[in-house]
Amino acid sequence: MNERRLWYKRPAADWNEALPLGNGRLGMMVFGGIEREVLQLNEETLWSGCPHDADNPDCFTHLSEIRSLLFAGEYAEAQALCDRYLVCTGKGSEDDRFGSYATAGDLIIESLLPVDSSDYSRSLDIFDGLAVTECSGFSRRHLVSDKYDVTLSRLAAPHMELNISFSREGVRTEYDGCTITVQGNNLGESFCTVVRLEGASECVASEGGLAVKAEGTLVICTATATTYNQADPLSVCRERIGRALAVGFDTVAAENAEYMNAAMGTSRLDLGSDGAPDTPTDERLSQLSEAQPDAGLSELYFNYGKYLLICSSKGQLPANLQGIWADGIYTPWNGDFHININLQMNYWHAETLGLAAYCEPLFRYIRFLSEQGRDTARVQYGCRGWVAHTLANPWGFTAPGQSPSWGSFMCAGAWCCRHLYEHYLFTGDLDFLREYYPVMKECARFFLDFLVEDPSTGCLVTAPSNSPENSYFVPGTQTTAAICAGPTMDNTILYELFGFTAESARLLGETDGFAEECLAAQRRLPPIKVGRHGQIMEWQQDFDEPEPGHRHISHLYGLYPAGVITESASPELYAAARVTLDRRLSSGGGHTGWSRAWIINFFARLHDGQRAGENLAALFSRSTLKNLFDNHPPFQIDGNFGGTAGICEMLIQSYQGFVELLPALPPSWRSGSFSGLRARGGFIFDVSWSGGLVESCRVTSLLGKPLELRFNGRAYSLRPAAGETFEINI
Ligand code: FUC
């Protein structure tokens, strides 16, 4: 119940054991060292690289030839042309101008006196947003303040003698009085971090750091800013630190705890566990069985998924591949915004958990991509509208990657638009829909221009394209190719895009005929097909696969996150989806954290609580680091968010026009309760269950829409008023 604490009996052995703090703009990783403490800092816009035009006109020049080869079944030849032309100019993600998300650096606190480390513990309270390290010799508290936009630490000990320094390559570091000023430059921006101490009885600056003495307490405040979005970062840092120190640690900590508890409190999950306060978190992980998910850890993981989004997505940019936490000058996959599953998965749980406010950076970023992707549409493909591909960064990169096999995912932007419409479905916010309709419309317009008729079927298909990062054997050969026409995922994404763009036009009273264009194109998209193995076909042709256990299960997009494969509307596809999953899993699928997280959602949609639970347990035991970060490997935060979304999908589903409660309850979750879970149509549910059956259900209707509700084998048709809260008579 109310699992809120990660805790450990020893300091972090490495960064993957450190504890994350953040306010959506700043991040801090706390190692909890005794003689040597490291506080590793991040700022969301601290990126190397710079804006640069990577759109490749040679692609458009060869487009018709590539299409002819594809439709003639000359797949190897089409692949060869795409290897040359369906790429960006320059080196894509390996280009210095693409850049990488980077650390702001490490604040290092070295004790010059021996420390009594008996009774050591370190912890993270994810409701208060507070990391605490304590032992007989000292206690240290750390937070990242939402209100003051600084990190704040308070060290307490009878007498301290410390050396405090800052470490990062490529910067100028100045130690002066009780202040450290760090400044650096990248291609596209300059950045700075200011550190200021308060409460020292002595502070001697030298090139090696600040030699500090203090009695009782010492407060350390840091701020980081960049010219990505600040004209004068140094002044901004100094001003923020001044404001925070003026009110003091206790006030800042209390205000931050109030903010965090409110944000975390929008929803709650109780799986009947007594918690495991006397077992350290790393030991709980190591004691896990693979059979069924540990109830207490499931609660903690659910809360952690909320915490990590609140801490990594409230600034200008959305949560990147590592949320907001990265400790290198170069981050794996540049720490960018991969948009062929990763960025989208970061937000799968947000609307259901009442965290829509933390989607704002995502929505703004999608609009940013739509502005940047207009040139890519025109130059790369000769089309109107906008397009983005697999890779994206804060500089506006929307071209394909440097290899078409993974970099030419054509529907990345269209998939992002799904989040705009989902927000409308959950909130009914017509003003939001009106604001973002142009983004959807121009995305749909690109595809109305880009789609071509497949001569063998008469259907409209994306050509060339690829089914994210997967490849097939060219028929009759052992040659592999990735480039194809009309992969199943594209067809399903566009089926939805055309549908919700047309519906949005209708809701907004648009009368320019664009909706009719979308619906006409929608009718001509290829259907989802079942292959010779009884599986959902990933491509238009029933190709053999060199990697049947591939981490991407893109052809099940229609099962989740989309809701076009359902038991009632498409029983054959619904059965084939399970075959597809079993084929992937039996061939080693689910081996990355995010892939396993996706599988949890798939089985929840198949109403299979047993398998959903097993895969949640597997996510914990195979793909979760000791600080509960998801592991690809390396650390990648999408699995945390996708796993939390999977827990939600086991408890409530609302994608079919009705709300279903406990659709996929793992057998070990026989009794429990949740509150504050949202459903499309603007409903909030508080539910308790016992023996796998709903015992109580309280509903709040935010919008006054009709409610079709199903649980315990019964169906209810309700017509609540807007703002009404009522109990269901069970
Ligand atoms: C896609 C995935 C990889 C990784 C990368 C960041 O390329 O296929 O597994 O998650 O994004």
List the helices and strands and how they pair.
Layout: E1 5-8, E2 19-22, E3 26-30, E4 36-43, H1 57-71, H2 75-85, E5 105-111, E6 121-125, E7 130-135, E8 138-144, E9 151-167, E10 171-176, E11 179-185, E12 190-198, E13 202-206, E14 209-226, H3 233-247, H4 249-264, E15 268-270, H5 281-286, H6 295-312, H7 342-345, H8 360-381, H9 404-407, H10 412-427, H11 430-450, E16 452-453, E17 460-461, E18 465-466, E19 472-473, E20 480-481, E21 483-484, H12 488-507, H13 514-523, H14 571-586, H15 593-605, H16 609-622, H17 638-651, E22 652-653, E23 659-661, E24 672-679, E25 683-690, E26 693-701, E27 707-711, E28 714-718, E29 725-727
Parallel strand pairs: 23-27
Antiparallel strand pairs: 1-6, 2-3, 3-4, 4-5, 5-9, 6-7, 7-8, 8-9, 9-14, 10-11, 11-12, 12-14, 13-14, 15-24, 16-17, 18-21, 19-20, 22-23, 24-25, 25-26, 26-29, 27-28
Helix pairs in contact: 1-2, 6-17, 8-10, 8-11, 10-11, 10-12, 11-12, 11-13, 12-13, 15-16, 15-17, 16-17
The structure holds alpha-L-fucopyranose (FUC).
Q: Would you tell me the structural class of the helices and strands?
A: alpha+beta
Give the averaged pLDDT, no decimals: 97
Counting DSSP E segments of at least 2 residues, the number of strands comes to 29
How many angstroms separate the termini?
A: 25 Å
| Rg calc | 26 Å
**Count of individual helical segments:** 17
Please mark out the parts with pLDDT under 50 across 5 or more consecutive residues, or reply none: none
Helix content: 25-40%
Q: In one word, what is the shape?
A: globular
